[in-house]
């Protein structure tokens, strides 16, 4: 950021580009990631999404 006189101004805390979206780069996991998913999903995956393809947490779910 530059001030009106051209000097570099300090950026405020938390300054940065906002996240615009999360995009799945591929429709499928590569073999290595699929093996990890198959092996660990039952142990570590929390089923909290609001629906298929949703990034929102299902209503009534609380994580403490």
Instruction: Tell me the major beta sheet.
Output: none
Number of helices: 1
The parts where pLDDT drops under 50 for at least 5 residues are none
From N to C, what is the helix and strand string? H
How far apart are the first and last residues' alpha carbons, in Å? 39 Å
Explain this structure to me?
This protein has one helix spanning 31-44. 22% of the residues lie in helices and 0% in strands. The model has no long low-confidence stretch (mean pLDDT 80). The radius of gyration is 20 Å and the shape is elongated. The chain starts with 30 loop residues before the first helix and ends in a 20-residue tail after the last helix. By secondary structure, the protein is mainly alpha-helical.
Write a short abstract of this structure.
With 64 residues, the protein is mainly alpha-helical. It has one helix at 31-44.
List keywords for this structure.
1 helix; elongated; about 60 residues; mainly alpha
How does the SSE layout of this entry go?
Blueprint: H1 31-44
């Amino acid at each position: 950021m530059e001030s009106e006189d051209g000097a570099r101004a300090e950026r405020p805390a938390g300054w940065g580009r906002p996240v615009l979206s999360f995009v799945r780069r591929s429709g499928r996991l590569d073999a290595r990631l699929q093996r990890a998913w198959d092996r660990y999903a039952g142990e570590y995956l929390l089923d909290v999404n609001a629906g298929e393809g949703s990034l929102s947490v299902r209503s009534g779910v609380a994580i403490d």
